[in-house]
Every structure is written in C-alpha cells, then in structure tokens.
Amino acid sequence: MSSTAEIQSGLAEILEEVAGVAPADATPEKSFTEDLDVDSLSMVEIATAVEDKFGVAIPDDELGGIKTVGDAISFIEKNQ
Amino acid sequence: MSDTTITLPPVAAGAQVLGVGAYRPRRRVTNDELSQTMDTNDEWIQSRVGIAERRWAEPDETLVEMSVAAGGKALAASGLSADQVDLVIVASASLPTQIPGAGPEVAHRLGMTRPGAYDVNAGCAGFCYALSAAADAIRAGSARNALVIGAERLSDVTDLTDRATAVIFADGAGAMVLGASDEPGIGPVVWGSDGDQRDAIAIPVAAPGEREALTMAGQAVYRWATTKLTDVLQAAMDSAGVTAADIDVFAPHQANLRIIELMAKRLGLPATTVIARDVVLAGNTSSASVPLAIAALLDSGEARSGDLCLVLGYGAGLTFAGQVLRLP
C-alpha cells in the first residue's frame, strides 16, 4: 500500500515520463486535459503505467471519469 | 476401400518475396482541407495520429483497379510472367461486394491462367495473414508463385464528416509476389486474435436501406496495440531466429505514428533500423499499409534489397500477425 504522498510523487513521475509535465505542476486540482495538455491517448499510456506501478486496473470506461490528478490519486488509493 | 496412398508434392525449403508494388490514389487530402469541413486542425491531427495527409480514391479508382495496378507493379518487379503465378490472395475489409470476391477478377485482369484466387478479411492484419497463407502454400507445394495484395477504400465505409475517424482512414493498395526459395525469406508467422474485443473496430449492421460507418474505440485499440503487441513482435523475431539488432527495417501496420514509435522504442531496435512512417503521408490504409510502407522505403532507397524487415499487421477482430521478411 502506497501512501497518498507516494502516490502523488509516483504519478508525477509517470506524467513527466509520458507527457513531459513538470513534477511541480502535477498537483491534485489540475485537470489532465485542460491544465496539463494531456490528450486521450496519453491518458491511456498514463493508465497503463499506473497499472504497472501501483498494481491497480483502470478499465477504459473508468478512465473517462478520471479528470484531475486528484481523481487519479483517489482512484489508486481506493483500488490498490 | 482403396488402399492406394495419397501422394503429396515436394516441400519447398522456404518462400521469399520476389517483388513489391504499390498504388496510391491520385487525390491528396491534407489536414488543412479536412479542417474546412470539420472541427479539427493540423496540429490536433498530427499530435494524436501523426498523419499530415492521406489519399482518398476517386470513383474510377476501385478496389479492383487499385489491386490490379499494385499487383502488376509487384509482378513486374518480381521478373515473373503472369502465367507463372498460380495463387492470388486479396486482403481487404472494404470490398463493396460480398459476392464475388476480388481475387479472381484481379487475377484475370493481370492475364493469369486460372490461378487459385480468393479474398481474406482479417481487418488491418489482412495482408500479413494472406502473406502467411501464401508462403505456407508455396512451402507445401500447393502453389509455385503467389501474388498477395492488400487493398482498401476505407473512405467508402468512413463517415467523412466524423473527425474521430475521417482524419485517420484512407485508401490504397500494396502487393508482393512470392516464390519458393532454398533459403527461407519469410519467417514463421506469429498470429492470433482477441475476439472479446470484436466491437473495438466495427461497422455496425445497418437497417435495410441505411448505411453505417466504421467506428473505433480509439483508447481501447491504442491500449491493446501498445501493451499486447510488443510481445507478438518479439515472438516473431524469436521464431525466425533473429534479434532486434538484426532488424534493418521495421514496417508495422501504419495505424498511428505514436504506436509505431512506442513499439520501436519498446523493442529496443538499434538506431540504424529504418522505421516505416508512411502513415504520415498515407494515413491508415488498413490491409494495404504494410506493403505500401515497404514499397515507399524501397523506392526512396532507405530500405535495400536483402534487408531483414519485421512486419506486423493488427486491427479489427481484433487480429494480429507478425513476420520477419528478407526484402527483395
């Protein structure tokens, strides 16, 4: 089980690797598409990277509901 | 009961590609042109799928006409005459007629003498499926030489006002002529299907008198392509007894530039490997894309005769098929 802080920093690493988002920008209130310029295909890459790192499954129909960094953190917390 | 034994023809050591040919429709459709009729723009399209322009066939450029053109070029490149080809397979997912198939007409138009001729529909994997079927027929002695064609008019089955699909799908035909060889020029196929995802790329059944357009669950297909197919490519290399370091040319199905780049990165191909990026100028031509991409690289000189080429078809079904080829 990863802590909230560990999840946030792990997610920030993934965002930097996949979409070139500066780790300081990956804060919970940020919207992936509106604020961080992450497109729908990069969201898939982020989802698969999150699955590998945190051992959770993010099906495509759940992925649509994950709008912000905070949404992703709570999804991982609930499902890990 | 007769006790006479059934005899089989001699088995060939292998099959090889003898010639490659392509036909690209005349009409170039740029992203700027599409942005005049739908809510999209060049930056949006290029960043998501890497396509700058595509070709859409005009009415006279039928699927059979394009197949004949590409097949004729592959035949000329092979050095064989039409009567030496005794098997023709046309791979297509967009043939306008269910009956008859395109294979017999294409063979007849090319002046061939009553070859075995049929069609294959394995979505965008169709060409690589047909290539395997033809190579196996040659090895088994069922055919001496074969013409394999991938041909599509996806513009016929796409809603050309839908920005999710119209920017991607396109038309064209590519072909290869195969013959027997002492040294194998086509490696074993690694193929399969994930039929639980049959709805991911589909044309829904239309009501009588209506037409339905091609739909694609983009995220689902992208996830599948980027997570499940690297292993298929690795298995195709393993089964042919080669490694990533041996691959001179990587020519996967031209679906999306981002998928191509991710696959190349994950395979660990050397920096010297030529990567087919025909999708940039051709769009996604489904079963035509692999031979079109290889023809472009041979024409430009980026790929050379004797190069080892890793190919992979994947698409509706979902289906996939990968092989290693020696380029002619």
Spell out the blueprint of helices and strands.
The complex is a heterodimer of chains A (80) and B (328).
Chain A lengths: L3 H16 L20 H15 L5 H4 L5 H11 L1
Helix pairs in contact in A: 1-2, 1-4
Chain B lengths: L13 E10 L4 E3 H5 L6 H8 L3 E3 L7 H16 L8 E5 L11 H7 L6 E5 L5 H15 L4 E9 L17 E11 L8 E4 L7 E2 L12 E2 L1 H23 L8 E4 L4 H11 L6 E2 L3 H4 L6 H12 L7 E8 L3 E8 L2
Parallel strand pairs in B: 4-5, 4-6, 11-12, 11-13
Antiparallel strand pairs in B: 1-7, 2-3, 6-7, 8-14, 9-10, 13-14
Give me a quick take on this structure:
Chain A is an all-alpha fold and 80 residues long.
Descriptive report:
The complex is a heterodimer of chains A (80) and B (328). Chain A has 4 helices and no strands. With 80 residues, chain A is mainly alpha-helical. In chain A, helix 1 crosses helix 2 and helix 1 (4-19) packs across helix 4. Chain B is built from 9 helices and 14 strands. The radius of gyration of chain B is 19 Å and the shape is globular. In chain B, helix 3 crosses helix 4 and helix 6 (218-240) runs parallel beside helix 7. The longest helix of chain B is centred in the C-terminal third of the chain and has 23 residues, at 218-240. Chain B is 31% helix and 23% strand.
Principal-axes geometry of chain B comes out as: globular
SS elements, strand count of chain B: 14
The overall strand count of chain A is: 0
The largest contact between protein chains, plus residue counts on each side, is: A-B, 10 and 13 residues
pLDDT average of chain B, as an integer?
96
What share of the residues of chain B does DSSP label as strand, in percent? 15-25%
Mean pLDDT of chain A, rounded to whole units?
A: 91
- Counting H and I runs of at least 4 residues, what is the number of helices of chain A? 4
Which strand order do you get reading across the main beta sheet of chain B? 1-7-6-4-5
Q: Please outline the major beta sheet of chain B.
A: 5 strands, mixed
Uncertain ranges of chain B: none
Low-confidence stretches of chain A: none
Number of helices of chain B: 9
Q: Biggest β-sheet of chain A: count, sense, barrel?
A: none
